[in-house]
Amino acid sequence: MRGGTIAVVGGSIAGCAVATAAARAGAGEVVVLERTRGRLQDRGVGLCIHDERAAELGASGALPAGIAAHRLERRRWVVRDDAHAAGGRVTWEQPFPFHSYHWGLLWHGLRESVPGSVVYRQGAVVTGVAESGATGVEVRLAGGSVERYDLVVGADGYRSVVRAALCPDSRPQYAGYVCWRGNLDAALLTGLGGVADSAPETVTTVCFPGGSCVIYRIPGPDGPRLNWVLYAPPPQDGQLRQGDPTSFPPGGLTPELAGHLAALLDREFPPYWGRALALTDPADTFVQPIYDVETARTAAGRLLLAGDAASVVRPHNTSGAAKALQDATALADGWRRSGSFEELLRGYEETRGAAGRELVALARRLGRAQVERTPAWAGMDGGAMAAWWRGQLGEAPGIGGRAMAP
């Protein structure tokens, strides 16, 4: 298929990947509508892509070469045990064939790869979309203007305007717990001993009753950084309101939240890791609620969803970035094979709809096992941990997403 006009709502990771894929596949005009006017918000957070997914996405062109990444090999699960080393007692190790990325560096690499033919407009706030007959979509912008396109792709994240038009009943479902995120200069660890420095390719998961924390290195603009993601129930004193999770965008720490986090680290973490995470600057620490979004469909009419707009998967699955890039790859493949928009969207739904729902289901199982219904970690050995892990996976071969169907 050649020609056609496409609006991509959202210019983050998914939006850049989709715009690049559509332009290279033969779209006549591609316009990215990004709501922010300056730099996209970058808190320096880390993310991981499975080595097999990275190879697949590199071959398709969805993951550009040359973006800084840190190789990871193993995941070590530890519990606090005051009779053992300050770094905690290791209960289990498993292979972890991933590379970690810095969000900002990954986005920058994807943004630079967007072809010059794509119009990337910042400060373009989309307030709504509506199909116009059978052959187009009207996009409403803040200020009242309306633009018309042959196809609109929603790559606008967890509060997607495009998803609201395509699947109005699909709303975020709060998981009942929160995620604390932070990152720090890895050089700060030098004075703490050598636990983290001795195995930079190892991911450490600290386990405690009612939660867990994943810690790993990522590349940074000014050198390696230590990235951590801590899952736990929210404070019970009303600092985080209950209700619609979309009313809680990721936010920085108040003094009260900082105190809650410090107490949690002191009470539950092996001393080394508690001290390490406490080195994080408050400006590099924030908290967000965890929730799921599952859609009954990802494409219909002239509307299509990609990335978090199509499905929001809890981070336990380590699949968000790979899934967004796979969505872009599927769109490009479908564009080249299809003779009409109807055929394109039908094929995309068949390819990506079930994939997103499977990821949501797996991440829910992981969340229940690692936060909501944690086992008696301290009493488990390697065999028990391996069986517990297999129980979470179900029929999935592992985390990080699956290979795309040929």
UniProtKB/TrEMBL annotation:
One Pfam family cited in the UniProt record for this chain: FAD_binding_3
Gene Ontology molecular functions: monooxygenase activity
SUPFAM superfamilies named in the record: FAD-linked reductases, C-terminal domain, FAD/NAD(P)-binding domain
InterPro entries from the UniProt entry: DHP_3-monooxygenase, FAD-bd, FAD/NAD-bd_sf
Keywords: Monooxygenase, Oxidoreductase
Record protein name field: FAD-dependent monooxygenase
Domain FAD-binding: 295-360
